């Protein structure tokens, strides 16, 4: 793949923004996807500085167009890139599946009434 002046359909930056220099630093295509506030949960998590942001970005040099990745900005809580953690599309899909499964488990648990052990024992007698 070679770099060009055109943007992918998802890029939200102005047309013609890409200016990678031959033999120099590259540039990025970026799309801001969503952001949410992450408040403190006492005993589990301190408040995240600023919102959690998710975006799509792609690094481009004069000779190479790298694969697009999904980045999540966790503020000062992430160990890399000043708060950003980067995932491939496949990793993001796996993470999304895991998060949906976890949220569904919590929601399902709220809907189900677990029988009291005494009730179960009483039914057997």
Describe the model.
The structure is a single chain. This protein is α+β, with helices and mostly antiparallel strands and 125 residues long. Helices cover 25% and strands 22% of the residues. A hairpin with an 8-residue loop joins β2 and β3. The protein is elongated.
Structural class: alpha+beta
Low-confidence stretches: none
Number of strands: 4
Main sheet? 4 strands, antiparallel
Order of helices and strands: EEEEHH
CA-based gyration radius? 22 Å
Strand content: 15-25%
Write the layout of secondary structure elements.
Elements: E1 27-36, E2 52-60, E3 69-73, E4 84-87, H1 89-111, H2 117-124
Antiparallel strand pairs: 1-2, 2-3, 3-4
Short key terms for the protein model shown above:
125 residues; alpha+beta; 4-stranded antiparallel sheet; 2 helices; 4 strands
Question: Outline of this structure?
Answer:
The protein is α+β, with helices and mostly antiparallel strands.
């Amino acid at each position: 793949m070679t770099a060009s002046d055109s943007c992918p359909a998802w890029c939200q930056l102005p047309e013609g923004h890409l200016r990678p220099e031959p033999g120099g630093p590259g540039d990025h295509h970026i799309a801001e996807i969503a952001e949410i506030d992450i408040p403190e949960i006492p005993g589990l998590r301190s408040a995240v500085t600023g919102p959690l942001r998710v975006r799509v970005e792609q690094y481009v040099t004069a000779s190479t167009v790298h694969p697009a990745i999904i980045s999540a900005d966790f503020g000062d809580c992430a160990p890399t890139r000043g708060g950003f953690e980067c995932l491939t599309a496949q990793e993001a899909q796996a993470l999304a599946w895991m998060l949906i499964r976890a949220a569904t488990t919590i929601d399902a648990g709220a809907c189900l009434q677990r029988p009291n052990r005494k009730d179960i024992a009483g039914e057997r007698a």
